[in-house]
Amino acid sequence: MDIFTIGELRKTFSNGEVKEEVLKGVNLTLKKGEITALVGSSGSGKSTLLTIAAGLQPASDGKILFDGHNLTSMTSEEMRSIRAKKFGFVFQFAHLVPFLTVEEQLDLMLDVSEVKMPKENRQQEIHYLLERVGLSHRKQAYPASLSGGEKQRVAIARAIIHKPQVLFADEPTASLDSKRSKEIMSLLRDLTKTLNITTLMVTHDEEMLSYVDHVVKMSDGLVV
Ligand SMILES: Nc1ncnc2c1ncn2[C@@H]1O[C@H](COP(=O)(O)OP(=O)(O)OP(=O)(O)O)[C@@H](O)[C@H]1O
């Protein structure tokens, strides 16, 4: 089932007098329960496309339809609410809060996403998800004592604790070695399938493409 449709998306950046069109009419459809990887040379527009799709920056033109909403015509407040409640984010580095334990990182995310749930259920949800990502034994740990792969597992758990419909991942394995990268991709695939999430990721690593359902190549601001 299509959940995300991007149509004729354009983005122009202006630096003084100079205008650069970095997205030149991109079309892309994402389906539930599938991972799509954006690949292409540096500067081809992958991160710009991902951040616009995620509502982190505005498009110059075009449409983004998500679950019946046109994201490009929303107010910034409506967009903020969709981002917080329906989207999840994972980046190259985990960006965990240094003074919060693993379980507190997830608890904070439930607050940010305005998930209303009794305290015992919150604890259960957090425990269940930490088990899914193989970290229930490190619930009380602070980020400084976690390995790179463990930090990224916490970042993934934090990105989906509020049950988002779409997960955006910008180079989620770029800071990890090959073995850890494969483990993280296997986890992302497993969670995408079992929780029926729609995942859009950017990667430079061809080894990771065997874990995804679709590979979309970008070149000079277009899908090719
Ligand atoms: N805020 C901005 N202002 C001006 N130009 C920008 C801005 N953000 C991106 N660009 C330009 O847009 C083009 C596409 O950048 P983008 O980061 O989307 O590429 P990418 O394919 O993700 O590259 P990489 O693989 O190196 O991360 C580049 O030429 C970049 O310099």
UniProtKB/TrEMBL annotation:
The keyword GTP-binding does not apply. Signal peptide: none annotated. The keyword Nuclease does not apply. It comes from the Bacteria. One of its GO terms (molecular function) is ATP binding. Keywords: ATP-binding, Nucleotide-binding, Transport. Residues 4-224 form the ABC transporter domain. This is ABC transporter ATP-binding protein. It comes from Fictibacillus nanhaiensis.
